Amino acid sequence: MTSLIPPGCPTVLTEDDRTGTSIETLRRAFMDNLFFIQGRFPEVATKNDYYLALAYTVRDRLLLRWLNSAKTYRDQESRTVCYLSAEFLLGPHLGNNLINLGLYEAVEEAMRQTGLNLKELLDQEEEPGLGNGGLGRLAACYMDSLATLEIPAIGYGIRYEYGIFDQEIRDGWQVEITDKWLRYGNPWEIPRPELILQVKFGGHTYSYTDDQGRYRVVWEPHQVIQGVAYDTPILGYKVNTANLLRLWRAEAVESFDFQAFNTGDYYGAVNQKIASENITKVLYPNDEQLQGKELRLMQQYFFCSCALQDMIRLYKQSGNKDLSRFHEKFTVQLNDTHPAISVAELMRLLVDEHLMPWEQAWDITRQTFAYTNHTLLPEALEKWPLDLFGSLLPRHLQIIYEINQRFLDQVRLQYPGDNDRLRRLSIIDESGCRYVRMAHLAAVGSHAINGVAALHSELLKQTVLKDFYELTPQKFSNKTNGVTPRRWMVLSNPGLTRLITERIGEDWVKHLDQLRRLEPLAEDRDFAAQWRSVKHENKERLAAYIRDRVGVTVDPHSLFSILVKRIHEYKRQHLCVLNIITLYQMLKDNPQLDMVPQTFIFGGKAAPGYYMAKLIIKLINSVADVINHDPAVRDRLKVVFLPDYNVTLGQRVYPAADLSQQISTAGYEASGTGNMKFALNGALTIGTLDGANVEIREEVGAENFFLFGNTVEQLQELWRNGYRPWEFANSNPMLKRVLDLIGSGYFSHGDTALFRPIVEHLWQNDRYCLLADYQSYVDCHQQVLQVYQDQAQWTKMSILNVARMGKFSSDRAIREYCQDIWHVEPVKIVLPATSYMTP
Ligand code: GPU
Fold first, then answer.
1. 3-state secondary structure of 760
2. 317 in a domain, yes or no?
3. Confidence class of residue 262 from pLDDT cuts 50, 70 and 90?
4. Which candidate in 383, 571, 697, 804 is catalytic?
């Protein structure tokens, strides 16, 4: 191989401008990029110019690792994990990449020497909001852990032009603003305009027998769209591994334009082009709520087809001719059912396009895929009306019928005469309007199925996938979620990171179990004082942000009680409001009451079409307005709604929390991951026995967790006996008073109609059992206040919480997936000693 370096140049480049890491080199490279990429002299450069110059400086260092990772995987034909997800909620790249490169301090100093403040530059970055909430953020944490554990992996998804909307609050209501995250360019992605794949839609199929006597099906589409790859490197923590996140953008196929152009329909051609590009225009802002829209199915199929075609391309690149070992090269994880159409698409590619016999193709398909379920909520389970599905993907519908028929034939053998079971298991829902059930397609087409917390995985086997569990119990397992300590501690909570590292070294960042070594320090008064002062500084910073952003003054000495997540009735933000109004009534009844000063902080977006969720936001803001301005409260109670909750804001919020509110109805939150981020940052949890709360409590110890509410079994019992919420309200004077106060218009300038939907629903139906859990929650909160008064005790509990959070690292979760489902091994990436340019 010849070197690209001209003769006479040194071949050992240890400190060149694109890979060097000394402060001096970083500073020079930064100025160089400001000049040659941004085209600016420092005197006229904007903050954004500086941010971009720095981003490109950091990107160069990523590319060195990325290209070498890709080359190593190619050379070694490494087995590769493909994580298919309609959402990747990455959060800002710059800070995270600096942490993972181990260059944060060096760059901070280089910027200081240039007269700039790194923090201000970090604040310039607009985060890519390519996800709704927990599911998308989990995918991002998993990409971080895969790279950190040196596992060859590719994330495949959609490059939405508009991510999750920005939220503004006007007159207490949520207003959605389009998220133009690409406005100032995206320095972290590399477009691959030559890496283009075609995706077909609509039309019809016909079959014939080819000259070798084989039955062949041809799909003649109505429309062809092309997918263009946009690549983002995902670097591991202090390793050379940089994996690939490949997101697809939809484009019109050139030839289609010409076709229309030639027939004189120029505007038709332009419309066609616009329609094609619409596919990746916008992220659907629904979280766990189905919105059977055609464009959504198009998005799903579009990115799955691109991903699978790309895998086949890569597979063939490494010299393999036939696809019989595809599943040995790739293992594909389906992040919920959004990519479940992949099962039918891989079958189509293998059978129709690569002429593989059905049985062999089906073996390969099942060995390739594994499926993660993220919800039990019936309204979130994806199903597509048959006619819509068939008109968009006619060939896939045929393939699904075939898969279903063969599958049900097998079930018949195992359960002769059990027609009810066949009906329940079928991929096609035949009750009333007919549907394709995507969870069934995913379950049948996968060799492994998992839930995301122990309780959730159990309930999965007892409810939505019960029949599948009875059929193939060996496919089922649990993989409790985790979060990356790099973003959710090292980057967001430098104070606590420093304190912990001073005492136990830095191993814990990669081996979170090491936090156990903090346990003995829980009794150390000196350490406890430092612990408290770190928390206090974090609270001061959040208080300053709240003052700037919301215009409310909050006291950093008060108890910061925080509830941030998507707004959903099952997450019960309004239960927290009932407790706040209860505290407020106590203060009104007894103005001299010696109550711990408290600040309640909310944040989260509501799906734009979810009326109740939007009304809950309005309720929070209305209650905040009254309480924050009532002189009788004398600042003992403050309520704040932080607008536009996102990853960036999460990084400010988690480190500043004293109390983490995890109050969903037992059995509804599959796992939760915010619960882990809070506890990792030293907040104590008030929570129900739901999702991963159960395991967090197990780990930290029941005595260090504030538990309340009915269990899943108790709620089942309640409903079996006929749940009558009004009985709870009528027999509980304070509860009744709180509900009546909301209904009376006290928080809505006398408007008794505004919050009626909330109050009436609670009285009459209360699907999420707020009233059944109310008293237990209120009592538990009083216990919280008691303990908070004993700061020594509180701090000890906080330290023990952190010390026992090791299990909830996404590294642990990914190790489990690797061992039990993916069967992949780490691959070490070694950087060439000579030059980055020598292949
Ligand atoms: N989740 Br399904 C989402 O954020 N969006 C979805 O569409 C679906 C699930 C969440 C669960 O609500 C949460 O409990 C879980 O921690 C998270 O997925 C990751 O598994």
1. helix
2. yes
3. low
4. 571
Q: Which of 143, 288, 371, 460 to mutate to test the pocket of ligand 1 (most atoms within 8 A of CB)?
A: 288
Q: What CA dihedral angle connects 803, 807, 808 and 809, to 10 degrees?
A: 90
257: its two tokens: 């334009």
Residue 115 lies in a domain: yes
Distance CA 42, CA 35 (A): 8
Question: Atom 6 (ligand 1): residue with closest C-alpha?
Answer: 288
Q: Are 64 and 836 in contact (CB under 8 A)?
A: yes
Average pLDDT (662-687) is 99
- Percentage of residues in the chain having pLDDT higher than 70: 97
Q: For residue range 541-598, list pLDDT tens digits in order.
A: 999 999 999 999 999 999 999 999 999 999 999 999 999 999 999 999 999 999 999 9
Same-domain check for residues 103 and 164: no
pLDDT category at 9 given cuts 50, 70, 90 is: very low
Alpha-carbon distance of 583 to 578, in angstroms, equals 9
pTM comes to 0.97
Residues 399 and 517 in one domain: no
Please tell me whether residues 49 and 133 are part of one structural domain.
Answer: no
Q: Same structural domain for residues 53 and 135?
A: no
Residue 833 inside a domain? The answer is no
Averaged pLDDT, 206-235 = 97
Residues 131 and 116 in one domain: no
Q: 835: pLDDT confidence band, cut at 50, 70 and 90?
A: low
Residue 481, ligand 1, Cβ within 6 A: yes
Task: Note the pLDDT tens digit of each residue in 326-376.
Answer: 999 999 999 999 999 999 999 999 999 999 999 999 999 999 999 999 999
Query: Could you tell me if 728 and 774 are in contact, meaning their C-beta atoms sit under 8 angstroms apart?
Result: yes
Beta strands 428-429; 435-437: pairing state: antiparallel
Are 343 and 465 contained in the same domain? yes
Nearest-5° angle of CA 271, CA 342, CA 351? 100
**Which token pair is 192?**
């691959």
Query: In the annotation, is 374 catalytic?
Result: yes
Q: Based on the structure, what is the number of domains in the chain? A: 3
Residue nearest to atom 13 of ligand 1 (CA): 672
Pair (381, 512) in one structural domain: no
CA distance 147 to 301: 27
Provide the residue range defining the domain that includes 54: 1-76+93-126
Clarify whether 456 is annotated catalytic: no
CA of 399 to the centre of ligand 1 (A): 29
Q: Are 255 and 247 in contact (CB under 8 A)?
A: no
Ligand 1 pocket check for 478: Cβ under 6 Å:
no
User: Is residue 477 domain-resident?
Assistant: no
Joined together, the tokens standing for residue 199 give 């995706």
Spatial contact of 136 and 85, defined as CB atoms under 8 Å apart: yes
Told to judge if 557 belongs to the known catalytic residues of this protein, a careful annotator would answer no
**DSSP per residue over 434-497, as a string?**
-EEEHHHHHHHT-SEEEESSHHHHHHHHHTTTHHHHHH-GGGEEE----B-HIIIIIIT-HHHH
Distance 364 CA to ligand 1 centre (A): 29
pLDDT digit string, tens, across residues 373-403: 999 999 899 999 999 999 999 999 999 999 9
What's 776's domain CATH number? Answer: 3.40.50.2000
Last residue of a domain, one of 449, 471, 493: 471
- State percent of the chain over pLDDT 90: 92
* Whether residue 55 is found in the same domain as residue 176: no
Return the CA Rg of the chain: 28
